[in-house]
Amino acid sequence: MNKPLRHVWLVIGVLFVLLFTSTTYFQVIAQGQLNAHGQNDRTLYNAYGRHRGPIVVDGHPIASSQTSGDTYGYLRSYDPGAMYAPVTGYYSVVYGFTGIERSLNDTLSGEADALFYHRISDILSGRQGQGATVELTLDSAAQEAAWDALDGRRGSVVALDPDTGAVLAMVSAPSYDPDQLASHDTSAVSSAWSALNEDPERPLTNRAIGGDLYPPGSVFKLVVASAALESGQYTADSEIPGPGSWQLPHSSAVMNNHAGGGTEPCGPEDVSTLAEALRQSCNTSFAQLGVGLGEDALRETAEDFGFGQRLEIPLSVTPSRIGEDLEDSQLATTSIGQYETRVTPLQMAMVAGAFANDGVVMEPQLVQAVRTNDLSTVSELSPKELGQPLSAANAAQMRQMMVGVVDDGTGTAAAIDGVEVGGKTGTAEWGSDRAAHSWYVGYAQQDDRRIALAVVVEEGGYGSQTAAPIAKDVMEAVIQG
Q1: Most-buried pick from 10, 170, 288, 304 (CB within 10 A)?
Q2: pTM attached to this predicted model
Q3: Which one-letter DSSP state was computed for residue 386?
Q4: CA atoms within 13 A on the CB side of 295
C-alpha cells in the first residue's frame, strides 16, 4: 500500500475512534448531565409528556394530570389548591417542583425502582406508562377544619395520630394556588411566581415544617415538666417555688410570673405544685425548675422528643432547637420557651403525641400508601418509633396535668364536652413592638379516636384566646367526625 493511501486510512481510523468515543461519552457518560440540562427541551417534553400519578386524600385526587393538547402532553391541576398546597407543592414547567411533587417525583412519574416490574408489564402489554397513586394520611375533615379556623391568618396547624405518627392535618397560611404555577402559559407563570415571592407574608413557605421557625413560649414548659418527672426528683404533686417575680441568675434582668408583666405568685407563700404551676403557666416556677435540672437534662429530653433531628416525612423538616452552652440566665428563659428556643408546629404536635401514646414519640408520616393504576399496593404506612422521652407512668401524669389546664386553666377554650382534652397554651414573645405569637399544644381522645396537635397564630396574642378555639375545631373534626 502506497504512502498517501496509508495516510488516508489512518485519518479515517482516527475519525472512527473519535466518533466512537464521542458517541459513547454523550450516550453513556454524559447522559445524566445532558438530561438534566435546563436547555434540553426534549427532556422537558418527555417529562411533561408522561402521565403523572395523582395525589389522593380520602379517595379524592387533590393533584392530578389531564391531557393538555399542547407540546407538553399533560397539565397538572390541583383541587382544592390552596388548602393543600404546602403539602402537595407545585409541578411547574418553568420552576420545577416542590412538596410531595418533588419528594416523591420518581413515584408519581412511574420511574421509581419499586415500579420496575410495573413498567415492564406496561411495555409488554402495550399500555401507556403511568405514574403511581400516592395516598396521603391527611384527614380531609381535619384539614378543612384547620384551614377554615385559621381563616387566612398567618400561622399553622399540624395534627397527628399519636398511635401511628400519621399526619392528619397540615395547614400553613397564607397559602397559594398551585394551578397558577402549573400553567403552561409561561408568561403568566412568571408573573405569578414574582408576585408570590415578593409577598411579604411568604405564602410559599410551609410554616408547619420550615421557614424561620417559632419561639414556642409557654408550650415549651411541657418539655421542662417532662424532664422534671423523668429526673425522678418530681411528681405532679411536688412543691416548687413560684414567686411573682424573680431576678435571673448573674443578671440584673427580672422575670415576671405571667405574660404581660403580671407579678402574682403561683401559690401561698410563693409555692405551688408542679401541676398547679403548669395550670397557671407560671414563668418563675419553670425558669427555676429548668435551671435546677440543668442544660444537659433539658437537652436530652428535648432530643428524645425529636429536637435536632432531620426528618423526611417525606417532606424535609427543619430541626427544632434550643440554645447551646447556656448560662443560668439563658437557661431560665429557655425553660419558658424564649431565648434561642425555636420550633416547628410539627415538633410540638410530636410532643403532644408522646403524652397521648404512653411516652412514645412516633415518626411523623404523610404517605398512607402507594398504589399502581391497577390498584396493586407498592408500599403502605409502617409506624416507626422515634424515641421515648418519658415513661408511660410519667406520660399519664403529664396527661393529668394537661387536662387540668383545659378543665380549669388557660386552655378552657379547647374543652369538648364528654371528651378527654389536655393541652397547654402559649404566648410567645418574638420582637419588640410586635404582638406575641399565639400557641396551643395538646391532645384529645375518646374511645378509639385520638389526635395530638399544635396550633400557632403569628401575632395572635394570648394562646387561650386565639389558638385554643382553633384547636377545638380541629379536634372535634377527628373525635366527633
Answers
A1: 170
A2: 0.88
A3: E
A4: 14
218 given a catalytic annotation: yes
Tens digits of per-residue pLDDT, 412-442? 999 999 999 999 999 998 877 889 999 999 9
Indicate the pairing of strand 254-256 with strand 245-247: antiparallel
Verify cis geometry, omega within 30 degrees of 0, for the bond prior to 249.
Answer: no
Calculate the dihedral angle through the C-alpha atoms of 459, 179, 481, 173, rounding to the nearest 10 degrees: 0
* CB-based contact 158:315 (threshold 8 Å): no
- What residue has cell string 445524566? 32
User: Which SS3 state, helix, strand or coil, does residue 99 take?
Assistant: helix
| Residue closest to 428 by CA, chosen among 219, 207, 245, 153 | 219
Question: By C-alpha distance, which of 164, 212, 173 is closest to 368?
Answer: 164
Which has the closest alpha carbon to 301: 254, 261, 354?
354
The one catalytic residue in 64, 92, 218, 285 is: 218
How far apart are the C-alpha atoms of 279 and 274, rounded to whole Å?
9
- The pLDDT assigned to 38 comes to 47
224-254 tens-digit pLDDT: 999 999 999 999 999 999 999 999 999 999 9
d(CA 419, CA 140): 21
DSSP, residue by residue, 277-318:
HHHHT-HHHHHHHHHHH-HHHHHHHHHHHTTT--EESSSEEP
Identity of residue 424: K
Whether the Cβ atoms of residue 248 and residue 260 lie closer than 8 Å to each other: no
E-assigned strands of 347-399? 361-362, 367-371, 377-380, 385-387
User: ω into residue 314 within 30 of 0, thus cis?
Assistant: yes
What residues contact 145, with CB distance under 8 A and at least 6 apart? 169, 473, 474, 476, 477
In order of 11, 62, 123, 328, the CA distances from 90 in angstroms are 53, 11, 29, 46
**Given a cut of 70, is residue 287 above it in pLDDT?**
yes
Extract the C-alpha cell encoding 58.
380520602
Give the angle 260-265-267 at the CA atoms, nearest 5°.
135
What is d(CA 144, CA 83) in angstroms, rounded to the nearest whole number? 8
pLDDT for 13-23, tens place per residue? Answer: 767 776 666 66
Omega prior to 174 cis, within 30 of 0? yes
